[in-house]
Amino acid sequence: MDERPLVELFTDGACSGNPGPGGWAYVLRFEGQEREGSGGERTTTNNRMELLGAIEGLRQLKRPCRVRLVSDSQYLVKGLSEWIDGWKKRGWRRKEGPVMNVELWQELDRLRLLHHIKPEWVRGHVGHPENERCDRLAVAVIDQYR
Question: Which of 18, 71, 133, 141 is the most exposed place for a label (fewest CB within 10 A)?
């Protein structure tokens, strides 16, 4: 049995235009305590923001954990659960060419060696409380760039 503590990480990314100003956010929950964070980039893509929300949340963990990672990004969830091992085996390439955002995927790969990450997809903008909260935090960052 895995003795590592179980944490929940809710993440989201947003972009106004693609590329355009973008924001990422996370809500991290452990034993009833929550921490949130957000940030962004002046010119970026939605996919980069989705990945950075997860990365920045995972970077907050001080020791190896089991992580329930909840996101509305199929790019992030499928990337972690289906694609990343194949990309890595092929030298970070897809059949169509190089993996986009490779440096972020490599960082996620490094982090998943530390933590047991179980990604879960949720439909966005349908009232999932933590997803909506992350979306508001990410959009607030975009508003700062306007």
Answer: 18
125 is catalytic: yes
Structural domains in the chain? 6-145 (3.30.420.10)
> Catalytic residue among 41, 56, 72, 130, which?
72
From the list 23, 41, 50, 79, the catalytic residue is 50
CA 80 to chain centre: 10
Answer whether 0.90 is exceeded by the pTM. Answer: yes
pLDDT tens figures, 27-42 = 999 999 999 999 999 9
**Is 72 tagged catalytic?**
yes
> How many helices (H) does the chain have, and how many strands (E)?
5, 7
